[in-house]
Amino acid sequence: MTEVPFPLGPEVLDPARRALGRGLCPECFGRLFGRLGHGWTNPERAARIAEALGPMPPAWACPVCEGLFDRIPVWVERCQAAGVEYEWQRFACGSRWDPELLAREEALWLEVGTAGGESIRSAFNRELGKRLEIASKAEGAPAHPDVIFLADLPVGRVDLTVMPVYYRGRYRKLDRTLPQTRWPCRACHGIGCDRCQGTGKTYPTSVEELIAEPFLKATGGEGTRFHGMGREDIDARMLGTGRPFVLEIRRPKRRTVVLADVVAEVNRTAKDRVEVDGMTEAAAAEVVEVKEASPWKSYRVGVAGVVAVAKINEALTFATTRAIAQRTPRRVAHRRADRVRTRRIVEASLVEATEGRFTLELRAEAGTYIKEWVEGDDGRTDPSLAMLLGVPLTVEFLDVIEIHDEPKV
Ligand SMILES: [Zn+2]
Ligand SMILES: [Zn+2]
Asked: What's the CA-to-centroid distance between 178 and ligand 2, angstroms?
């Protein structure tokens, strides 16, 4: 920082004369002019004024800070104690004050007539941060801290906020009985009841829990949030290169893990159910990015229905040339607004056909309900494949085989 001279004109010396004899400590005296000059500490400002006005009377009990700045090392220790169980390289710090003390300081500015006073709160936060950087070999980083220390001055305690860590990757789901996220029991809302055998859950486990467990073990975190780029039905597999997700770990004790080892542990413990790869550390902002994406998807669908191959091919060709009006399916109507959406199937092909069964591969616009497009949902999807073929159809299985989230070339 370039040094800007500290002015010693009447705008400083007049208020300084009025402040003499009030018993201010050098920090509080200099801070009356803390916004004047650059590259000076407040005690240095006080020393400059003393050069002009003569030595200041010693301060026994500073009426503004009551000796707080002498006790900063104590607050540094309290911060370190609050964060001792956690790994942190970057921190932010703040403080909570008795409002009367802050008001007293502003009253003093008026009484002595200074226009360049700096608030005790910002001076304290800055000094605490500087000392904590040195004592902890950590970096003050208010924009992206690992932890936030809040010095509660009236109470004499430091409150610690631990920021989450985020990991991004893709998962494949090979099991048709797994929900994507923890699913609280509908009867007890997670408390545990007879219906859920005390687990508080509708399903014994989930993609989230299978992935989270090794991450919680590695990071010592207290819990997770799972942010998927959409979700598949419980009975649908998620194949291909998998579905992007961000795993958020709350209050992690360790922030540096050997990611390859954790991923290997997920793939070992969730074998034949869930696989993850492409894992990297992620930023908080990627949660929004993943949640807001609406990629097109490819599906493989197994259908039961008696119909000739030529007719299927004809219907698929027709289906890809026009839009579908899709009213909110009956099975999701309890959680989605009932309205009609326009969607498109952009590619459709017949993969195989045997007596009474056939398999399709489809590529569809985000938000297309595939099961309903095949079966018709009692006319709520128009046209449906069943409608085009003129026979009843039943989806026997549905797999997502690709999420097209990468920019198209
Ligand atoms: Zn003071
Ligand atoms: Zn229950």
From this structure: 18
Question: Are 255 and 170 in a shared domain?
Answer: yes
Cβ atoms of 118 and 147 within 8 Å: the answer is: no
Q: What positions carry a catalytic annotation? A: 233
CATH number at residue 393: 3.30.70.3190
Question: Per the domain annotation, does 4 fall within a domain?
Answer: no
Measured in Å, residue 69 CA sits from the centre of ligand 1 at 7
Number of domains in the chain: 3
C-alpha span between 281 and 259 (Å, rounded): 9
Q: Give 128's contacts (C-beta < 8 A, 6+ positions apart).
A: 72, 75, 76, 79, 93, 95, 149, 151
Q: Output the CA torsion sign for 290, 292, 296, 302.
A: positive
% of the chain with per-residue pLDDT over 90: 83
Expressed as residue numbers, the domain containing 188 is 165-292
Of 236, 259, 292, which one is at a domain's C-terminal end?
292
Average pLDDT of the residues in 96-108: 94
Cα–Cα distance, 235 to 176 (Å, whole number): 4
Identify which ligand lies nearest to the alpha carbon of 183: 2
| Domain shared by 311 and 279, yes or no | no
As a whole number, mean pLDDT of residues 61-85 equals 94
Domain-embedded: residue 1: no
> Which ligand has its closest atom nearest to the C-alpha of 197?
2
Strand ordering across the sheet containing 157-162: 139-140, 90-96, 147-152, 157-162
pTM score over 0.90? no
Q: How far is the CA of 2 from the centre of ligand 1 (A)?
A: 27
Angle between helical axes of 99-112 and 10-19 (0-180°, round to 10): 120
Classify residue 101: in a domain, yes or no: yes
pLDDT digits over 301-343, tens only?
A: 999 999 999 999 999 999 999 899 999 998 888 888 889 999 9
